[in-house]
Known about the structure:
Elements lengths: L7 H5 L4 H15 L5 E4 L4 E4 L4 E8 L2 E8 L9 E6 L5 E7 L7 H14 L11
Amino acid sequence: MSQRTWTIDDHLEGKPDASIALYHEFVSLVEACGPFTYAVSKSMITVKGTRRGFAGAKPDTRGLRGYFDIQRTIGHDARISSVSPYTKRLYVHTFRISDLAELDEGFAGWLREAYEVGQGGHLGGLVAS
């Protein structure tokens, strides 16, 4: 029995244009951080740095939901639905975005922090080159 391979197109299919636009803007913000790869599963489109996945997103009927991993907790922000410790050094922040204006410079800054985690920045002196 073969296992189904999920694609980005599978996640975009049948979603509202506004949700797809949010996803594409999210990807643009990640692209601005530097090179990355995708890991696509049934539940999420994850973006990975040289060391690990650092963020993910999935468009749905209400907008875009996803997560990013950074080394601190973000205080109250309406976009952040939960913050959970992942390791001693990392916190998973789940988000929901429903408007392009929410993907602002503040959100881009969080993705830059997450990108550094994907590059191994949370490992101290063990960063991959």
